[in-house]
Amino acid sequence: MTSQNLKIAIQKEGRMSEKSIELLKKAGLEFEIFDRSLASKCRNFPLEILFFRAQDIPEMIADDVVDCGICGQNTLAEKSLKLKEIEPLGFGKCRLSIAAPAKKLDLNGKKIATSHPALLKKFLNKNKIKAEIIELSGSVELAPKLKIADAICDLVSSGSTLKINGLFEVEEIFASQVILSAKAGIEKEKKEIFEKFLIRIRSVLTARKYKYVVMNAPIDSLEKIRNLIPGLKNPTVSPLINPKFISIASVVKEDRFWETIEKLKQCGATGILVLPIEKMIL
Ligand code: AMP
User: Fold this and answer.
1) How does DSSP classify residue 121?
2) Residues 181-193 as b or e (16 or more Cβ within 10 Å = b)
3) What φ, ψ does residue 193 adopt, rounded to 5°?
4) Are 112 and 150 in contact (CB under 8 A)?
5) What is the mean pLDDT of the chain?
6) pLDDT (0 to 100) of residue 231
7) What is the sign, positive or negative, of the torsion defined by CA atoms of 65, 67, 69, 75?
């Protein structure tokens, strides 16, 4: 049984850790995490969760310690291992950017500090820029102040770290988010488990993109409303005691949510109830 368990690596502590655990739990996987434990077994699915430092996760997949892992696209790209990006997970969105104490900077002949030397080198080569790469493992943003480098190449999320350190974003070189990654060919015996695992994860990711909406509306506005909310295939329409009105239930895309609600109101919809969807299997 143990050898048949699918193994997934997730970050032990840090930005990605909590959201990775939340995603697995939302996918219906039951497990406990005890302080300082290195691994956790799912009670209701053949899955073992192993905890690592984020930057070690790609190697753990490549070396077959685990079958798949949750890590940043930036970490994966930096390692140039032959791993597949299976699914973007929609969190940990950030960009790898070059930043400097001035808004514009000719990078030729300059020193750039980074913990992403491979991605930076790729960018410099592609753009025929001759700059020196200073590799640092952390606190990259301090390098210009400490006169270690003229510029930095670091991950930017809100931009406040750059601001606090008097740095300006000169160039974005890589857009990143957290992904589920695996080896190109997952072991035959585990493939089926992995496919089932993916269905669970994708059901949560898809559900996050939609809201379930129920409303009352005049019967003669049905066609207009139907065009506004195509739903999965067709909205559910139920009669009400007042024969001039109907109840309509459907799903609305999260990214067009408020725009759609305003249009629904213009069509005469009232009593609009909005509910989150936990899982969605298409
Ligand atoms: P912020 O101030 O929000 O722009 O965050 C910048 C700081 O957080 C830098 O030290 C980055 O290296 C780090 N950082 C930002 N986003 C991420 C991420 N998605 N993963 C890991 N580190 C990040």
Assistant:
1) H
2) bbbeebeeebeeb
3) -65, -40
4) yes
5) 94
6) 67
7) positive
pLDDT tens figures, 178-219: 999 999 888 888 999 999 999 999 999 999 999 999 999 999
- The amino acid sitting at 170 is V
The radius of gyration of the chain from alpha carbons, rounded to an integer in Å, stands at: 24
State mean pLDDT over 226-246.
Answer: 88
d(CA 123, CA 126) in angstroms, rounded, equals 5
Q: Where are the beta strands (DSSP E) in 55-196?
A: 68-72, 83-88, 94-100, 111-114, 132-135, 151-156, 168-176, 178-183
Contact assessment for residue 110 and residue 170, using Cβ atoms and an 8 Å cutoff: no
In the DSSP assignment, the letter for residue 255 is G
| Atom in ligand 1 nearest the alpha carbon of residue 141 | 10
Tell me which of 71, 139, 161, 179 to substitute to probe ligand 1's pocket, judged by most ligand atoms within 8 Å of the beta carbon: 161
Beta strands at 68-72 and 210-218: parallel, antiparallel or unpaired: unpaired
CB of 101 closer than 8 Å to CB of 168: yes
- From residue 189, how far is each of 195, 233, 238, 248 by CA, in Å? 11, 36, 47, 45
User: Does the C-beta of 15 come closer than 6 Å to ligand 1?
Assistant: yes
